[in-house]
Design a protein that fits this description.
Strand order of the largest sheet: 1-2-5-3-4
Largest sheet: 5 strands, mixed
CATH topology: Protein-Tyrosine Phosphatase, Chain A
CATH class: Alpha Beta
Number of domains: 1
Radius of gyration: 17 Å
Number of strands: 5
Strand content: 5-15%
Distance between the termini: 17 Å
Amino acid sequence: MSDDRTLHADGLFNGRDLGGLPLKGGGSTPPRRVFRSESVDRLTADGWQALHDAGIRTIVDLRAPSETAKDSGARPDWLTTVVIDHDGLDDAPSFWSAYWETGLVGTPLYYGPHLDELPERTGSALRAIARAEPGGVLFHCAGGRDRTGIIALALLKIAGVEPESIVADYLVTVDNAPALLASIGVPSNEAKIEALCAEHGTTVEGAFRAALDGFDPVRFVERSGLDDADLEALRTFRADVA
C-alpha cells in the first residue's frame, strides 16, 4: 500500500483502499478495512498475495450471473467471495430499458435513479460488506467504475466522508480507466461517456456530483433492508470486526 491509497496488486489497475478519506466531523476513514477495485479475475499469484498482505479476507462481487459464470479461476483458501447481483437486470427490466437503449448505463446519470428506485440492490451489497467475516473487504464489479461507484458513493456518504473527497475518489477511477482498458486491448471510451453526459447538459463529474448531492442516506436506509447493526458497521468502517 502507498500513501495515495493505491492497492498495488499484479493484475489490478483500479484498486485502492478507501481508508484515509477525511470525515466531515474530523478524522478520517480507517485504512485496511474496505477496498474497491475492478474485477479480480486477472490477478496473478503475486496479486493475490498482495491482497492477503493488505488484510483482505472477503470479496464482494457485484457482477451479474452472466459475468461471474465466466470466472473459472481458482481463488485462495483464505478468501471468502460473496456474490451480489447489483444490477438486477432480470428483476427490474422496466428500470433498465431506458438506460440500455440510450447507452446511459455506462454513465453516472443512472446512479441516482438506481439508488432511488432499486435501493435494495445497493442495500444487499452494503449488508454483505457490513456482515463480512473479520478482515478487510474488497468490493468490485467489472471495471470498478459504475456498480462499484454506486456502492462507494453510498458507503462513503453514510460514513460521513467529505463530499469533495467522495468526488475525488470517483475521479481516480476515471483517470485509471484508459490504462485498465488498454490492458485488455480495448480503446478508451471516455470521450463517448462525456459526450453522452453533454447531451444531458452535464459532464461525468457533474453527473456524479448530482447523484451524490441527491442521495439521502436516511431515506435510503429506511428502504434498503439495512438494520441498525449494519448501519453502525458501515459508519465505522467495520470497527468491531475488521
